[in-house]
Amino acid sequence: MSERESALFLPAIFVGGLVFGLGLAISGMARPEVVLDFLQFEDFGLLFVMGGAAVVTGLAFFLATTFLDRAPLTATEYTRRVKEFDRNVVVGGVIFGVGWGLSGICPGAAYASVGIGNFPILWAIAGMFIGAYAQGYVRSRLANTAN
Amino acid sequence: MDAFTPLLASGLEGLFPRGILPYLVGGLLVGLGATIIYLSTGIIAGASTFLESTLSYVSGVERFNRYKYVQSRDWRVVFTLGIIAGAALWGIVLAPDPSAWTTDVQWWRLLGGGVLVGIGTRLGKGCTSGHGVCGVGSLSETSLVNVATFMAFAIGTAQLVAALGVSP
């Protein structure tokens, strides 16, 4: 983080996270049962969670990149989220999908789940850190042997 | 119309046994949270990068110590604490529901699934929030492909596990 950063930077991140977590709790996505009901076609409500959220962010991205210049707290230029496509995007999507289907929980919803007091979810968070560590370790090793 | 309304309602009840409102309100708030961060800081936040950037506090592995992780790790911790606080505000203060304070999903599903989520989201450059909400909101082809892929495999896996008689 730069020294020029506004004193409001971390508070803004916290408030954004707060509203984000509030939404995840209200939507029920913080509960693996609700996600599994969706994936088993017993309750399609989750479509409204992802759809509703994507519409809001889509509108914000469109308006900011069209009419605004730079973010007030960081002077960062507004952009859309466009990441480069490669094979990993598909392979990662397959692995994530199997994991999400098995556990019914994804990263943001897992943090929210801790907030609603659902402590068995710590199993899933521990697993996520183990998985993230494993891929980072292997990829760092592979990058070094390739050089 | 009078004859049609109950028909429509019963059809919707089958598809949405918990109703639509909590899902829609929740989704709009998730989008609003991401929007607050975006408009004030220009940052497009995803939830899964936290897993790697936080590992840089304790691990010397090269990948976790890349500049973009180390320089973002502090605010990512704050973002996650915000998510936890927001969820607690609803689940513990505003609308306490003791049945949500635990899960019946078995621990090995949570742990094993969690490991795969950790690998897959980091390999695939994002998760349900980064690709699913922000990437789809950006109409990014990369994100649309990733979301279609993880949705298809998640549905297949959940249905297979249920068909094998594991419940929940």
From TrEMBL, chain A:
A Pfam family hit: DUF6691
Highest rank taxon of the organism: Archaea
Organism in which the protein naturally occurs: Halarchaeum acidiphilum MH1-52-1
Keywords tagged on the record: Membrane, Transmembrane, Transmembrane helix
Protein's name in the database: Uncharacterized protein
InterPro entries cross-referenced by the UniProt entry: DUF6691
Membrane-spanning intervals of the chain: 7-26, 46-68, 89-114, 120-138
TrEMBL record, chain B:
Record-level GO cellular component terms: plasma membrane
Assigned keywords, A-Z: Cell inner membrane, Cell membrane, Membrane, Transmembrane, Transmembrane helix, Transport
Compartments (UniProt record): Cell inner membrane
Transmembrane segments: 20-39, 75-95, 107-124, 144-166
Main location: membrane
Domain of life: Archaea
InterPro entries in UniProt: Sulf_transp_TsuA/YedE (IPR007272)
Keyword Transmembrane helix: yes
Topology within the bilayer: Multi-pass membrane protein
Listed name of the protein: Uncharacterized protein
Organism: Halarchaeum acidiphilum MH1-52-1
